[in-house]
Amino acid sequence: METLVQVQHVFKTYQMGEVQVHALRGIDLAVQAGEFLVVVGPSGSGKTTLLNLLGGLDSPTDGSLLIAGEDIADYDERRLTAYRRDKVGFIFQFFNLIPTLTASENVEFALELVESNGHKVRQEAKALLDQVGLGSRYDHFPSQLSGGEQQRVAIARALAKSPRLLLADEPTGNLDFRMGQKVLRVMQDLNQKEGRTVILVTHNTAIGQMADRVVHLHDGLVAHVEVNETPLPAEQIEW
Ligand code: ADP
Ligand code: MG
Q1: Domains of the chain by residue range
Q2: Looking at the domain covering 34-56+76-236, what would its CATH class be?
Q3: Could you identify which of 1, 49, 105, 115 might form a hypothetical disulfide with 101, taking C-beta atoms 3.0 to 4.6 angstroms apart as the criterion?
Q4: What is the pLDDT at residue 18?
C-alpha cells in the first residue's frame, strides 16, 4: 500500500488580534492511495482548517504535510499555488462556480490551465460533464441548475487536472439528501472505479457510512478512528 497523505503533528493557530485560536492541536493522520476517508466533527472542530492545509490553501503553524512525496508545510505562496494547480481537486460547500459562465465554460476554464488546444478543451469539458451525469446541461448557467447539478459541475471542474487526490469540504452541506446522494455517488465512483483518493469532511455522521475509514475530529484533535469493513453505497446514505 502506498501512503498518499501523511499528516504529522500538525498545529494551526490563528491570530485574531490579541487572541490565539488553536484550530488544530497536533494532528497525525495517514491516508492510503485509493482510500475514501471521511473526517467528521462538529462545527468548529477544525475540519475546514485541516482540509485547507491539505489543499495548500493555507500553511500549518507547525508540523509536516507530506502529499504524494512532497512536504508542502513550508512551501512559499508560489510553490503552494503550483501544488494547488497540479495536484489536488477541491470541492466546496457552496460550489464556487463562476455565475457568468455556462457549465461547460466553467469546466473549460479549469482545463485551460492544463491544455492549450481549444478543441481538446471543449471536447474534454463535455466528457467530464458526461461523466458526472450532466450530458444534457452543457449550456446551462449555474443559476439554471439545481444545487446538486451545480455541485456536479464543480466536481467535473475539479477533475480537469486529473488529480489523484480529491478534497471535499461539506460537499452536500447545501443539498437535500436526494441531491446529496447523487453527488456522493459521483464521488464514490471516482474512488471505486478510478481509484482516486477522496478526503471528505462533514459534520454529517451519516456520510461516514460510505467511507473506508472515519476520522472523528474534536476540538482540533483526532478523537478516534473507525474502520468500515463494508462501506455503504451512496444511495443508502440518508439524513
Ligand atoms: P469546522 O470546519 O470544523 O467547522 P474550522 O476549521 O472552520 O472548523 O474552524 C476551527 C476553529 O478555528 C474555529 O474555532 C474557528 O472559529 C477558527 N477559525 C477558522 N478559520 C479561522 C480564521 N481564518 N481566523 C481565525 N479563526 C479561524
Ligand atoms: Mg468547515
Answers
A1: 34-56+76-236
A2: alpha beta
A3: 105
A4: 95
